Amino acid sequence: MKSAVTVSLVPEARGGPFVFHDDLPAACRKAKDLGFDAVELFPPGPDAVGVAELRSLLDDNGLSLAAVGTGAGWVRHQLSLTAPDDATRDKAVAFVQRVMDLAAAFGAPAIIGSMQGRADGAVTRPVALRYLGNALFKLDEHAADLGTTLLYEPLNRYETNLVNTLADGAALLRGLGASNVRLLADLFHMNIEEVDIAAALRAAGKAVGHVHLADSNRRAAGMGHTDFAPVVAALRAAGYDGYLSAEVFPLPDPDAAARQTIDAFRRLTA
Ligand code: LER
Ligand code: MN
Fold it and tell me: How remote is the CA of residue 113 from the centroid of ligand 2, in Å?
């Protein structure tokens, strides 16, 4: 398994669960100094960071790009894959496709998290799930064209009422026959929604393509009460060799959260 740490460049996400904020060159230097394998990027949009600039930042620091988030489509532009109107859904798909294009230049997947939206008065749950399925179907084809994968992230009940567990996410992807979309297992969401985190990971098996490493309270691993040993054992048993990427609050400060994460990562994967 490989280590990654999150960097957000989205001003609206400053209070959010990202270790580093705003300054990408500084974040890359910190990630390198601490010995992370990669950074995971949350850009304000697909054009916020140029490919050449990002490539030299990564190369200069010996880092890979673990994944790229698309949540700015929601927080900045109120785009959603399950919006009531066709035009907004189409824009949301196009936004995700352009983030996928950026990520694919680095062999990295894009993430569908908050862009999945939620059912509400205007869109019933069955309709929202159909919209989500239609969008993922198109995005699966785009991933195939790019030779990349897309990550779909079940979220906890306070963030979506569409898909909250790995099992429901796996069923959605199976129903679509999507061969280039894999699940993102966020251990914070799973702590709220799963009966047994390790059992859910074992059951999802090869469908898991990425892991957000966070403790029960969304702080760095070891700063809450999740028991990570069975979680990592379950990932090992499933043959998981992807990233454990720290998507956590920068508490007590970004450097301490990053150091706590890499220490925990080394202990858990030793
Ligand atoms: C949101 O809670 C989250 O976990 C992100 O990874 C998705 O946008
Ligand atoms: Mn997450």
Answer: 7
